[in-house]
Amino acid sequence: MFLPEKVESWDEMKEKGMIKSIKQIVPAQLVNMGGIILDQPLPYRGIDQVDPFLLIHHWSHTMEGGKRQQDVGVGPHPHRGFSPVTFVFKGGVHHRDSLGISSEVFAGGVQWINSGRGIIHSERPVKELAEYGGDFEIIQLWINMPVKNKMDAPAYYPLHKNTIPKWQSDDKLISVHVVCGSFNDLKGSVNPLSEMSIFRLELKKGGRLTIPVREFDNTLLYLLDGRLNSGNENVIPKDLLIYDSHGDTVEITVVEDSNAIFLSGEPLNEPMYSHGPFVMSSQREIVQAINAYQDGEMGSLKEVFD
């Protein structure tokens, strides 16, 4: 268990009012995305975003096999103005893009894209999964980019499991995989465009964890499986916790073995307009993005399969 410096106990933290309480629990809703049925906790009714976090899609599927890779997953599509980030929990994802990159990331890894002024990419289960079947589970997160970065050059960052810094508690019950931001002197290899911390959590029954955060940052936790308690609330699979802005620590007690993602970021507090795969700061910029894609200004992607 990791406790912030100068704090003697959990009870002391509660007395000082440091621990964030739960503002809302959002249960994921089933949505149909082009024939793919997945869980979506964000956006939700009345919640368009939790700035800077725009969308969370959770896709868990057992592939039956016997298919070609080009017939599964998501084919070429554009993005502009935000960062699509994909956590791979089971199986593997094959990314191809208009920058000429072809990359595979397997369980425990993360794919991070800064779409900037425009990128076209595809995300498909790796060839072996398509052909022979198996478990496939990913979470895709959309993060808004600051206005000043929306027309930057696009970039792609593959983070493989063994390259993501990992902190483990002395009792081996808690593992924190640091994608970006820092935790207990470990720093993620991605430098986000605004202040944020993003972790993948592996939690064993009986474990306890306190995560320091910056007060007034927007903080979320999404539970894939298992069961835990946080902010005096019981959390079940596919619940999204939205924490209150006050407080500078998040407390977690693990009731059953669990996997989760933890997100905490400084709100951008900038205008945001979205349309399909584009997230910009005005309606005019959305129209410009659509025109740029149709005119070929975001490049092209012709997938090549073995």
What does this structure look like?
By secondary structure, the chain is mainly β. It is built from 3 helices and 24 strands. Strands 1, 13, 14, 17, 18, 19, 20, 21 and 22 form a 9-stranded antiparallel sheet that branches. It has a 7-stranded antiparallel sheet with strand order 2-3-4-11-6-9-12. Strand 13 and strand 14 (174-180) form a beta hairpin. The protein starts with 9 loop residues before the first helix and ends in a 12-residue tail after the last helix.
Brief digest:
This protein is mainly beta and 306 residues long. 8% of the residues lie in helices and 50% in strands.
What key phrases describe this protein's structure?
306 residues; mainly beta; 9-stranded antiparallel sheet; 7-stranded antiparallel sheet; 3 helices; globular; disordered N terminus
Beta-strand fraction estimate: over 45%
> Structural class, please?
mainly beta
What general outline do the C-alpha atoms trace? globular
Sheet with most strands: 9 strands, antiparallel
Q: What is the count of β-strands? A: 24
Helix content: under 10%
Quaternary assembly = single chain
Cα radius of gyration in angstroms = 19 Å
Q: How is the topology of this model organized?
A:
Elements: H1 10-16, E1 22-27, E2 29-33, E3 36-42, E4 53-63, E5 74-79, E6 82-90, E7 92-97, E8 102-106, E9 110-114, E10 119-125, H2 127-132, E11 134-144, E12 155-159, E13 166-168, E14 174-180, E15 182-183, E16 186-187, E17 196-203, E18 208-212, E19 218-230, E20 233-235, E21 239-243, E22 249-265, E23 273-275, E24 278-280, H3 283-294
Antiparallel strand pairs: 1-21, 2-3, 3-4, 4-11, 5-10, 6-9, 6-11, 7-8, 7-10, 9-12, 13-14, 14-17, 15-16, 17-22, 18-22, 19-20, 19-21, 19-22, 23-24
